[in-house]
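Lab notebook, bench 4. The sequencing result for the construct came back, and we need a structural model before the next group meeting so we can plan mutations. Quick request posted to the team channel:

Model the 3D structure of this chain.
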Amino acid sequence: MSGRLSDAAPLRYTPAGIPVREFRLKHASVQEEAGIGRKVEFEISCMAVADAALNISDQQAGKQVNLEGFLARKSMHSAELVLHAKQIEFIG
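Done. Here's the predicted structure in token form:
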């Protein structure tokens, strides 16, 4: 998934000492559906852990990125989804 970094929280550490960075991703693209181009725009909550969190710890909001990862619940008691970014590639 691609987009721009937004609303990045400060780098924090879990009690086990693992770095975590929470941020939002703003995505905009045109996707084909039923042979017609459809404009898609959304924001999604994201988090990066360990090396991926360190990779973005000094980056500023507005940077264009490609993310690879997976969707998971925000917590055991929440239905809200969060994109867990396993790989982050900065573009440009």
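Residues 51-55 form the longest helix (5 residues).
Will bring this to the meeting.
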